[in-house]
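Q: Two folds, back to back.
A: First:
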Amino acid sequence: MSYLQASNLRAEVHESPEMEAKLVREAAQGSRPAFDRLREIHSPGIRTFLGSRVGETQVEDILQDVWIAAWTAMPGFRQGSQFKTWLFAICFNKYRDYCRAQKRRPQTVQLDEGIQRASASDHATALESSENVRSLLAQLSEEQREVLDLYYAGEMNLREVSEVLDRNLNTVKYQFYRGLANMERMLRQQDKEVGR
């Protein structure tokens, strides 16, 4: 399936939550074709989320673990929550498992799509900017990085982030706004040091 086809599927589901709810119900009852359709819809988003943290080989391994875990847990999926949120919780936990197995600290940000599409003349500037963002994010607390990461890279709202991380919504809001304030403060400090 091409990226464009997957984007169209995600758009259909976004415009028709009933379609996704139907697929989820069928998958929870053991329908492999319904589950495969959900996998086609959500794999590009999860792949992007994981791809900004680990290499391509590891993305495939973690993605496979995510889908195996999702298929196994599908009969117990609560219809009251959003499938995407539930799926990203599984993804986030599998990513953490991978990091623990590697005995390393989770990474948060890699080159974004804009950098990959940048022209040759813009590449050096974009790369420097990405390195700067990574450096600033590394200075935040792990909790703040996780929240910002899921919000921006996972394209989730704060309620969904709180569900994925199993944290109180007010705590997530505090960590989000505190993380942004810290990033802004660090950027202002950098500007002063450069003399801008």
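A: Second:
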Amino acid sequence: MPAADKPTVVNFWATWCPPCRAEMPLLQQMAEFYGDRLVFQAVNFKERAVAVQRYLRESSWSIPVVLDPMGAGAQAWGVQVFPTTFGFDGHGHPRWRVIGEYDWSSPQAGRLVESLWR
């Protein structure tokens, strides 16, 4: 799933997950801040497309979302807690995993994301 030549952040989430909903605005801000220097991909866990689309419309979230309707993606990546976020460098190598809600507006988060370029 990581994009070639650009660092990539992949976030597994669900609309029924309060911590996921809490961190969504911060993830949106992060994606906007880094712009085209960073690829951001959200993976929705086991929800119907219509429910996800409705939620995205209501929340004004513009980050691309991939559906994982059977949970196979989450299982393959070892995701057991939502949200879980992965960071990959520009070569597609995994660099970090954050399990649970995270303050993506913090200086620590900035250092974590910027480590994907090193």
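Q: And?
A: Residues 8-117 form a domain with the Glutaredoxin fold (CATH 3.40.30.10).
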